[in-house]
Amino acid sequence: MPPARPIHIKLQKRIEKLLEELAGERGVVVTEFPYRPVLNLQYWVADIAYVPRNDWDALPPDEYPVYAPPLIVDVLSPSDPPCQLNRKRIVAMSAGTQEFWVVDSGKQTVQVTDLNGTNIYAIGDSISLTMLGGVVSVEQIFAI
Fold first, then answer.
1. How far apart are CA 56 and CA 74, in angstroms?
2. What's the confidence (pLDDT) of residue 64?
3. How many domains does the structure of the chain reveal?
4. Cα-flanking dihedrals φ and ψ of residue 99, to 5°?
5. pTM for the whole thing?
């Protein structure tokens, strides 16, 4: 896997910070989170994931259990083939993920798939995070 580009890393850190502010003590926001959405898959790595505190405390320290975090954020990179990204989204959502974000630095958009469908948010829009009880503006995400 090629190394992440600086913009990719900056976006990850920015989104991590914004989500941590909303999550507070209710959960953990982590970058490069390994997870196994279904038993017959090896683990995958979410660029950013939100894990509720109860789930976090129950995760075993030395293995990757079958678990799909409620929120997965994937910061798009040139090495992400669209078909692989769609597969990850479908499998994760089928396994219990409630929101799957795809952040596109080139277009400065955030594609959010939730249980009701998919919406694309651009500069001037805000993304409501019901599970965290707040909103994040797209402008905040790209203010790096």
1. 20
2. 78
3. 1
4. -140, 140
5. 0.92
Q: How far is residue 44's CA from residue 33's CA, in Å, rounded to a whole number?
A: 8
The closest of 37, 117, 120, 106 to 72, measured between CA atoms, is 37
pLDDT digits (tens, 9 = 90+) for 46-56: 999 999 999 99
Distance (Å, whole) CA 17 – CA 11: 10
Domain membership flag for residue 17: yes
Chain position carrying tokens 């989170």: 33
| CATH, residue 127 | 3.90.1570.10
Q: Does residue 1 sit within a domain?
A: no
Average pLDDT, the chain: 90
Quote the pLDDT of residue 1.
46
